[in-house]
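Lab manual, section 2.4: Encoding a predicted structure.

Procedure: take the sequence of the chain (271 residues), apply the prediction step described in section 2.3, and record the output as structure tokens. A sample record is shown.
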Amino acid sequence: MYASAGTKVPLRNDMGIATSSTLTLAQSKLHVAAPYLIEQTWASYTPEQHAIWAELVTRRMPQLREHACREYLDGFHQIGLREDKLPNLSEVSALLQPRTGWQSTPVSGFLPADAFFEMLAARMFPTTTWLRSRDSMEYTPEPDIFHDVFGHVPMHAHPVFANFLESYGKICAGLMARPDALERMGRLFWFTVEFGLIRQDGEIKVYGSGLISSHGECTRVLAGGCEVKDFNLDAVLNQQFQTSEMQPVLYAVESFDQIYEATKEAEKRLG
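Recorded output:
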């Protein structure tokens, strides 16, 4: 979601719906991240792109209805996502913001870390507007709108998760001069937001976007293909990972209050 090297991605304005006044208002609330905000021109999506979105979603939903956490499934409907059409981000935000204060905010691509954290602290989730091609249905190395919206945004409708993510952004924004601390906080993000598991009704359920949006990775985890440990802050902060490989170990929480409290504890230890 953010580029650690801080390389600026050229702004593009080809996929969007936000009005110029909406974009200007969003930019006025930000400093570092403001240049990366764009407009999404929803009307520019082609029928083929809507068909790709529909195929991606319909592939995932049967498994997720059984194995995703209830907060994700509730959020999917609460923010108005559809299985047959790409999301209109202003419509998503119009439903999401009254619930938790979060918005799905269009950006040009990967962000430098300080811009990414600034947006999280402002309850603006950086959302790319491009969609993978049919040749890359199974995997794309750069997050697209399917990963960002389908994978992430439904969880932002849950109040505790919403508070956790804002708190995470604020804490990391204060650690920009501490790359060692940021690396450890990155592990907390990876094993919760990206690859988090939760125990519900006596079963392991998925909520991390990397599992929500990837059929192969999710199937492997549910089939016992990785070690699932109880969430432990010390273990998570010290657990290294490779972004390009299947995860050998993941962590399951008992509730989302647990990761919110863990973030505050991490701030005490690393701040």
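Check your result against the sample. The chain has one domain: 2-270.
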